[in-house]
Amino acid sequence: MQLVSDQELRELENSVKGELKYNTPMSEHTTYNIGGPAYIYALPVDKDDVKTLMEFASEHQLPHFNLGGGSNILVHDKGYQGLIIDLKKGFNSIEVEGNIVKAQSGVSLARFVSTCRKHNLAGVEKLAGIPGSLGGALFMNAGAFGSEISQRLKSLSLLLENGEFLELRAIELQFEYRESNLPEGAIILESEFELEQVEDASELYGSSQDIVKERNVKQPVTLPSTGSIFKNPEEGDSAGKLIEDAGLKGTRAGGAMISDKHANFIVNVGKAKAEDVMHLIALAQKTVQDKFGVELELELKLVGFEEWFI
Ligand SMILES: Cc1cc2nc3c(=O)[nH]c(=O)nc-3n(C[C@H](O)[C@H](O)[C@H](O)COP(=O)(O)OP(=O)(O)OC[C@H]3O[C@@H](n4cnc5c(N)ncnc54)[C@H](O)[C@@H]3O)c2cc1C
Questions:
Q1: Over the stretch 30-67, which tens digit does the pLDDT of each residue have?
Q2: What top-level class would CATH report for the domain 6-86?
Q3: How far is CA 207 from CA 97, 128, 210, in A?
Q4: Helix 6-15 crosses helix 47-59 at what angle (to 10 degrees)?
Q5: Has residue 205 got a pLDDT over 70?
Q6: Which atom of ligand 1 sits closest to the CA of residue 131?
Q7: Which of 13, 142, 251, 288 qualifies as a FRET site for 51, CA 20 to 30 Å off?
Q8: pLDDT tens across 98-153, in order?
Q9: What average pLDDT does the segment 286-292 reach?
């Protein structure tokens, strides 16, 4: 489907310095290895590029999606009829000054954590092993083992959908469990963190390694997934336990399966389609609701489903 004329696309190409691709399979950009093509896939190199892209999307009523590492999304089999903005190429710098770390959103969370480690900075070691980018981690308020990325955040630099750049201090933001509550469509460009300087980080190295080992034991890390599908319903309650108690571990639909290792993971066991995953999501929600009266809310984000609606 042609959403924008060829001439308008040429004009866009001439006004951004970064790369633009068309009909890019999103299965290549998600940890699930699932998803049809993106109409436009943009790799901006600086803030002005991102602004131009946002303005183009709004002028042409084209939906846009801010992509991080693609580790918490399910993209529709028919793809995304809009503009994907990927910061991985152009927003990759990380600077450390004393106990302050300033990083751009395309930096991987793994690199962020290991940089903090190298500089003997404590506070983010429990996030070791969470895949994806720093921008995605902030948007999702990613966390594990009682720790969340927002806890050490000092400030954020955003570009709003209306093209306005905005600096926000952490106290002006309302982070919750796996929610950042940022303005709709805003893109996080960079962020600043305040960590705790310690003399010797070797103990932290140790705890991070143990955490990664524990993840590898408990989670189906060898199969493509998006991590937890559902949020835990409330403090102390586990979505995985509810799905397991509902007897759904190991249930399959096409190439997707409710993991037999951790029931809050739906894994891609071979050429799964988004449709297969959606089938298992609906099954888990209905069964848990019927058996335990608990509503399971999605943690993963659905991309492209508005257009095709299944
Ligand atoms: C094996 C595995 C284990 C996992 N374990 C955990 C875990 O322990 N804890 C946890 O919290 N999560 C976990 N996850 C989920 C996922 O890794 C996190 O949610 C991660 O922080 C998402 O980052 P991402 O860059 O991949 O974001 P994406 O999946 O690309 O995007 C997720 C959301 O963030 C938005 N976003 C991305 N970048 C930006 C940006 N720059 N500005 C604005 N919005 C943006 C997207 O639009 C989307 O809505 C796991 C996933 C896997 C595959």
A1: 999 999 999 999 999 999 999 999 999 999 999 999 99
A2: alpha beta
A3: 24, 9, 5
A4: 160
A5: no
A6: 17
A7: 142
A8: 999 999 999 999 999 999 999 999 999 999 999 999 999 999 999 998 899 999 99
A9: 97
Q: In degrees rounded to 5, what are phi and psi of residue 127? A: -85, 0
pLDDT for residue 309 is more than 60: no
Contact 6, 13 (CB under 8 A): no
Residue 80: which H helix or E strand, with range? strand 80-86
Per-residue model confidence (pLDDT) at position 200: 84
299 is catalytic: yes
What is the b/e burial string over 261-274, where b = at least 16 CB atoms within 10 angstroms of the residue's CB? bbbbbbbbbeebbb
The token duo for 271 is 């050429």
Q: Measuring from each residue's beta carbon to the nearest atom of ligand 1, which residues come in under 6 Å?
A: 31, 65-73, 87, 105, 130-133, 135-137, 139-140, 142-144, 187-188, 219, 221, 225-227, 301
The pair of structure tokens assigned to 137 is 């981690």
Considering only CA atoms, which of 261, 254, 309 is closest in space to residue 283?
254
Return the residue whose CA atom lies nearest to atom 21 of ligand 1. Answer: 137
CATH node for 94-215: 3.30.465.10
Q: How far is the CA of 6 from the centre of ligand 1 (A)?
A: 33
Distance of alpha carbon 1 from alpha carbon 255, whole angstroms: 28
Residue-level pLDDT at 252: 98
Distance of CA 2 to the CA centre of its chain: 28
Q: Same CATH fold, 94-215 and 6-86?
A: no
Give the separation between CA 239 and CA 60, rounded to whole angstroms. 40
Q: For the chain, which residues make up each domain, given as ranges?
A: 6-86, 94-215, 220-308
**If you classify domain 220-308 with CATH, what class do you get?**
alpha beta
Please give the model's pTM, rounded to 2 decimal places: 0.96
Token match 């290991």: residue? 114
